[in-house]
Amino acid sequence: MDEPSLSAAQRIIMLFVIGASICLAGLGYAIQHKKPPISPKPVSSVVFVDMGGVGHGSGVHIGRGFVLTAGHVAKEGNLKVKNDFGAIQDAEVLWYNSDYDVSLLKVTQPQLLGTANLSCRAPEIGEEIIAAGSPLRTEFTRYWGHVNGSVTKYGPWNAVFTMDMTVLPGISGGPIFDKKGDVVGIAVGVALIPMGMAASVTGIGYGVPGATICNLLART
Predict the structure, then answer these.
(1) Does pTM top 0.90 for this prediction?
(2) What is the per-residue pLDDT across 51-106, written as a single tens digit (0 to 9) for each?
(3) Which of 14, 24, 98, 140 is deepest in the core (most CB within 10 A)?
(4) For 54, how many CA atoms within 13 A lie in the half-sphere containing its CB?
(5) What stretches of the chain adopt beta strand conformation (E)?
(6) What are 81's strand-pairing partners?
């Protein structure tokens, strides 16, 4: 017996059904293997502190609009701070402590900044740390190193620890993070070697420990 033949209309319907099945299968695969949307880069807690035409420093937002920086970066008045997306806002110097070289600022738009946790401890010798800030003309960079000295009084600072990283001009006031991302210090200076009429920087930096900063803030 001859196989029953399909009419032209039946052929069209069959082709439509096959095509629709293929499209649905492809759509299901695409949905199943769809890549998640790329999340925008989070705003950093680290800030660029404009010293009003006489240079710049760095700082870190520790919440509620409060920004820590080095005392020699911000002594009084109003300044400008910038986040890593380039948004600039006003900041007022709330207090400045010359003995410890630490200042506290208050920004007008804290929602433009990330927040870092201030740890009320001194980092341990040998501990891995990360310094963040904007040295020289390089903005929002990070440097890895280790703590290599206990907290002591040195030079103009009543309490600093040493670390094996160079604190170049511009990174002063920037945070020193531990491996968990907590702030365990603020960078304030670098060791210098006298060379005649000038001096050369070394690979040894100085930081005010978080424990000292918390005492200044009356925090525990």
Answers:
(1) no
(2) 988 899 999 999 999 999 999 999 999 999 999 999 999 999 999 999 999 999 99
(3) 140
(4) 7
(5) 46-50, 56-63, 66-70, 78-82, 88-97, 102-107, 128-133, 141-146, 152-154, 157-163, 175-177, 183-195, 198-209
(6) 49, 89
Q: What proportions of the chain, in percent to the nearest 5, are helix, strand and coil?
A: 15, 40, 45
d(Cα 170, Cα 161) in Å, to the nearest integer? 19
Half-sphere exposure of 75 (CA within 13 A, CB side): 5
Contact 161, 151 (CB under 8 A): yes
Tokens (6 digits) for 203: 């690979």
How big is the chain, counted in residues?
A: 220
* Spatial distance between the Cα atoms of 124 and 150, rounded to a whole number of angstroms: 7
Q: Kind of pairing, strands 78-82 and 102-107? A: unpaired
If 0-12 CB within 10 Å is exposed, 13-18 middle and 19+ buried, where does residue 70 land? Answer: buried
Cα distances from 20 to residues 12, 170, 180, in angstroms, run: 12, 63, 53
Q: Which residues contact 64 (CB under 8 A, 6 or more apart)?
A: 110
Nearest to 189 by CA among 204, 175, 178, 199: 204
Assign 3-class secondary structure to 165-182.
CCCCCCCCCCEEECCCCC
Rounded CA separation 166/190 (Å): 6
Q: What does the block give as tokens for 157?
A: 């600072």
